[in-house]
Every structure is written in structure tokens, then in C-alpha cells.
Amino acid sequence: MNLSFETFLPLAPVILLSLTAVLVMLAVSIKRNHCVSYWITIAGQLAALVSIFALDGFAVDRVATPVTDLILIDGHAYFYGALVIFASLVCTVFLRNFIESYGNNKEEVYMLLLIAAVGGLVLVSSSHMAGFFIGLELLSVPVYGMVAYTHERSRSLEAGVKYLILSAAASAFLLFGMALVYAQTGTMLFADLADKLAEHGGYLAGFGIAMIVIAMCFKLSLAPFHLWTPDVYQGAPAPVGALLATASKLAIIAILIRFLGHITSDLTAVLQPVLAVIAIVSIAVGNFLALTQTNLKRMLAYSSIAHMGYLLIALIAGNSVDVVSANVYLLTYVVTSLAAFGAISALSHGGNALDAEEVNHYRGLFYRSPALAVALTLVMLSLAGIPLTAGFIGKFYIFMTGVTTSSWILLAALIIGSGLGLYYYLRVMVALYDRTGNSQADNVPAARASVAIVILLVVLVLWLGVYPQPALEFINTLH
Amino acid sequence: MEIAFYIASAIAIYATLRVVTNTNPVHALLSLIVSLLAVAAIFFMLGAPFAGALEIIVYAGAIMVLFVFVVMMLNIGPAVAMQERAWLTPKTWVVPAILAAVLLAEMLYLLRDGTWNQAGHTLVDAKQVGISLFGPYLLVVELASLLLLAALVAAYHLGKRDDQNG
Question: Which pairs from A226-229 meet CB under 8 Å and 24+ separation?
Fold first, then answer.
């Protein structure tokens, strides 16, 4: 086996991010300075993002390049990778003003964020069970620390412990599944999986694949594996919630798409009805439980369960994964969710006992911070899937997948779910313009950098909604 | 001639059940050590002596001893001496001791017999593990180091109190 500079060149984003994490660590060990750590993190992530384009990551004639057996870099891997880095970059900005008022050490959170981003990148490009597992752990372990980062708040610590234990259970499922698949097929490479499964197929491997899929559903917080989600979203600091809802979900969806593409069709046929039930239950549970929430973070947690249910439709309708629909939906979901959590982050401070998470905090926000209120309104419209916003385009693609594959039951779930969703999103919007005002939130200043980023994201939401052509064409050329 | 494998497996399962059902942490930990030793024996018999040795050194050795120490140190107070005496009753150690003795007998029997990997197909020794770790799986080793860094930083931050500086 020959390893040279060229072998690792396609991994430049991963290497740059790892390097940045080490740089932050060295900077902290020389002298603690929040500002320096912050700018190193921003610069490193920008460099990683630029490196994807510098490597012609999205060139049309690009062939998939393997880096050892573990990693296979193709256009999709770079697309999801770029989204992961984008999400973590935005979270970094949100984190800054949040962590500024936090009394304890501030700099470590950037290191954890960078390592989580490395994990996301490895996960989306892995083509081997070992890469799959190490990527997932690399994505999860720093996030445990980040969820519990403000451990002076008991809720944050509780959320961290909950996420740690339940994620560990999911990882155990994943490992056991991989062991069963390996025991039957003797291969850990995704590329060999289909052939070997067809050759030695049996209950053991099928059971193993089911366990792997269950672990993924767990991480995606699809019902009935969703019980941890609202508590963890509520307890996590708002910017970390943004990371959990976007980068983490996105990377796991990406590997799930890749994994499902490599198993035999008779196994897919067995999995399909199971996943369809999971999708419908997720849509129902997410939307019904979100109806009664008065806490914005919990509401977003339940709505993310429903959104993952919608997304699952693109993965299971028909005989194969509709990657284009899934990608469009992921893009719109990531941008919208980042903006939603960004608005919460802008009003939250690490030094306070609670984030600005109750709907009451937002009552009359329009008269205190009009720009943020308008942005949040548009975000809620996008989450609800109203035309002219990104959310509509995403939902439209899922809808089209459902129609072309004649999956009428799934479509019915999508339509009913969206209708229910409208109610609780509208309730937040009404609160924003409620003149009665609210004393407890009047004096919370919105952080300017976060508001600016939220507005940028909302512009992106509108642009994707009004003129989606360039983005859609770009996604169509991915291969 | 796979009887040794089944005995070790039975011990592993029984000891693990005792870990889960025991309400006294020290009793549970003793059973966990036995369970890990039994799993190590299984690794040896499957033809993975390196994994078996690591299991004993890292889990049964380092991590578990650390656990036992921490649990014992948590009980600082006047009741400690009494508790120590209570822990030394045969009820505490007799079952783990019997299970460990069975494992020992198994090991002696296998040493005399000379068939190491009677339940496995091939022998994977330390050299092969090293070659694959620093060959095709090089990236995993590097990423694992990042994973440890993340765990270390998170543990450091969570363990640190507000009133300390640095």
C-alpha cells in the first residue's frame, strides 16, 4: 500500500479542520483568549470550505476518489461536507456572543465544534464500516461535551448525560449490526456489500442491517426512537442545538443514503415498509406533540422529528433512494433550521440561567427588534413550507417523489402533517407581533453578529424559495 | 473440543447478569471483572490473542481497578471501616472467585493441551493487527486520536468548577 501526498489531497478539508482544532488547542495552552480562538476557528473553517472548491470538488467530470479503503470522495460527499462546514461555521458565529458572557472556560467549545465537524466530514465520505463508526463517534463525542458545556445549568448537564447514554446505546446497536453483517458476509466495504449479501445472504446479515438502520433512526430521532430529542434540544445551549439539528442530522442522512445504496434489493424491499411506518409515525408524533409546546426549543425539536419523517419519504418511496429530492430537502432544511436556532441564540446568553426559549420571550419582539422578528417570521413560514420560501421547494420535491412513485399513504401523511405544522408555526408568528409585550424579555439585547447572520440566512431562504433554479441545477449535476 | 469456549461464554453471560442485577456497586464491579476476563478467554480461543491480552490489560486491568478505587474512595466517612469489613464477607467474593477459578482451570487446561484457538479458524497475532492498523486502517488510528482529544477536552471542561482559574 502506497500512501503519498496525492493520496490524502482529497481529504484536504478534513486535514485543515483537524489542524485548526490543534491550533486552537495550542493557542489556548499559550494564552487563553476568546477572540483569538474564535478567529482561528473561523479562518480554519473558511479554509476548509475554500479547499473543497479549490480541489474542483464539484467538477462535472470528477471521478470518485478513494482514500485508502475507508473513504470514498465523490461529488455528494463534497456537497454534504460543504454543508457540514457551512453549518458549523454559522454555529461558530452564534456561539461567540453566547459564550462571551459564560463565566467558565470559553475556548474549548470551538475545539469540540471543529472535531465534530471533522467527524461529520468523515462520516459523509466513508465507504467502510470502520470509517462509518469512527466518523459517527467523532461526530457524537464532542457534541456530548458541547450539549453539557454550560454544566452550571442543571438542564444542560442532564441533556448531556441523556444524549451520552442514549447515543452510546445506539452505537452499541450499530456495532452489533456491523458485527453480524461481517460474520455473514466477511466484508466491511460498502462496495462489496451487495455482492456478498447476494452470495451469502441470510437472516444474520439482514438482522445486522436492520440493527444498523435502527441505530441511524435513533440518531435521526425518528419515532419511536425520538424520546431523547426534546430534552436534549431544550437543555443544549441554543447554538449547540443548531449544530445538533443541522450538521449532525445531515451527516447521518448522508451516510444512510450511501449505505442504503449498497444493500441488495430484496433487503430493501423488507426495509421499505418498516421505514414507511417509521416515517408516518414520526410525522404524526412530531407534529402532534409540537402542537402543545410553549417552549420554542422543544417545539423545534418535535418539528425536527416531523421534518426527518418527511425526508425519509424521499429515501424510501419507490424502489430506490431519490437522492436529488433528499438533497434539495436537506439544503432547505439546514438553512432554515440554522436561522431558527440562530434567532434563539441571538437572544440567549451563556451567563444566564436559561436561554430565550419560551414563546413568551418572543412576545412583541417586533417592537424591540424588528429585523429579527421579521427574519423569524420568514423562518417559521419556511419551516411550515409556505411558497416563496426555501421550505416550500424542499417539500415540493418530496411531494413530487411521492407522486412519481405513487406512494399515496406517505403523501397523505405529508399533507396532514404540513397542515398541523402550520398551526404551531403560526402561533409563534402571532406572538412576535403581540402588542401586549412582555416584561421579562424586554431588556435582552439581540447580538448583532448573530442577527446579521440570521438575516443572511433568511435572504438565502428567500432566494432558494423565489429563484431556486441555480441551486437545483447544481444539485442535479452532483454525482 | 469447543467445550472450553462454551464454559467461558456461560461464565461471561452469568457474570454480566450479576453485574446488572446487583445493587451493591463493589459486588457488581467484581462480577464485571470476571465477565471481562471471560470475554478475554473467548478472544483467545477465537484466535485473537492480541485482542484478548488488550482486554485484560486495558479493561480488567486499568479501567476496572480505577473503577473499584473510585467507588471505594467515594465512601469516605466513619462508616468506611464497617463497610470494608462487610465487603470482606464470603458473600461478596465467593461467586466471582469460583467463576474466576473456573476460568483459571480452563486456562491451565488449554495451556497443557496446546490448542490455542480451538473455536476459531485462523490465528490473528499482534503483528498482523499492527500491520493493518498502520496500513489500510491508518486513517482510523489518526481519527481515534482526535476522538480521544475531544473526550479529554470535554471531560476536562465538565470536571472543572466555576471557582477555579486556569
Answer: A226/A282, A226/A285, A226/A286, A226/A305, A228/A162, A228/A163, A228/A166, A229/A301, A229/A302, A229/A304, A229/A305
Write b or e for each residue in A279-311: b if 16 or more Cβ atoms lie within 10 A of its Cβ, otherwise e.
bbbbbbbbbebbeebebbbbbbbbbbbbbbbbb
What 3-state DSSP class applies to A67? Answer: strand
Asked if ipTM goes beyond 0.95, one says no
Please tell me the pTM assigned to this model: 0.91
> Is the CB of A142 less than 8 angstroms away from the CB of B150?
yes
pLDDT over 70 (residue B163): no
On the 0-12 / 13-18 / 19+ scale of CB atoms within 10 A, A265 is exposed
3-state secondary structure at position A320: coil
Tell me how far apart the alpha carbons of residues A48 and A38 are, in angstroms, rounded to a whole number.
16
| CA distance linking residue A77 with residue B146, whole number of Å | 21
Instruction: Give me the residues of B, 130-159, that contact A with CB < 8 A.
Output: 135-140, 143-144, 146-147, 149-151, 153-158
Q: Which residues in chain B have Cβ-Cβ distances shorter than 8 Å to A131?
A: 139-140
Q: Do B149 and A21 touch (CB under 8 A)?
A: yes
Q: Which residues are bridge partners to A65 per DSSP?
A: A73
Q: How many domains does chain A have?
A: 1
B153, B158, B165: which to substitute to probe chain A, counting the most A Cβ within 10 Å?
A: B153
DSSP string, A434-446: -TT--GGGTT-PP
Q: What is the mean pLDDT of residues A459-464?
A: 95
Own/partner pairs, B92-99, CB within 8 angstroms, 24+ separation:
B92/B24, B92/B26, B92/B27, B92/B30, B93/B30, B95/B18, B95/B31, B96/B15, B96/B30, B96/B31, B96/B33, B96/B34, B99/B11, B99/B14, B99/B15, B99/B34, B99/B38
A200 is in which domain, residue-wise? 5-476
Note the pLDDT of residue A438.
Answer: 61
Confidence band, pLDDT 50/70/90 cuts, at residue B25: confident
Nearest by Cα to A105 from A34, A22, A154: A34
Q: What is the mean pLDDT of residues A262-277?
A: 87
Cα separation, B155 vs B153, in Å, equals 5
Residue-level length of chain B: 166
Q: What angle do CA A218, A220, A225 make, to 5 degrees?
A: 35
Residues 44-73 of A with CB under 8 A from B: 67-71
Q: Are A138 and B162 inside 8 Å of each other by CB?
A: no
Contacts of B120 in chain A (CB under 8 A): none
Cell 436492520 locates to A210
Residue pair A34/A101 in contact (Cβ under 8 Å)? The answer is: no
Contact: A68, B138; criterion CB under 8 Å:
yes
CB A411 within 8 A of CB A404: no
Q: Could you tell me the maximum CA-CA distance found in chain A, to the nearest angstrom?
A: 70
A286 interfaces chain B, CB cutoff of 8 Å: no
Got the DSSP string for A216-264?
HHHHTT-TTS-TTHHHHHHHS-HHHHHHIIIIIHHHHHHHHHHHHTTS-
Residues of chain B contacting A118 with CB distance shorter than 8 Å: 143, 146
- Contact check, Cβ <8 Å, A138/B157: no
The upper half-sphere exposure of residue A329, i.e. CA atoms within 13 Å in the direction of its Cβ, equals 28
Fill in the amino acid letter for A146.
M
Q: Do B140 and A71 touch (CB under 8 A)?
A: no
Q: What per-residue confidence (pLDDT) applies to B80? A: 65
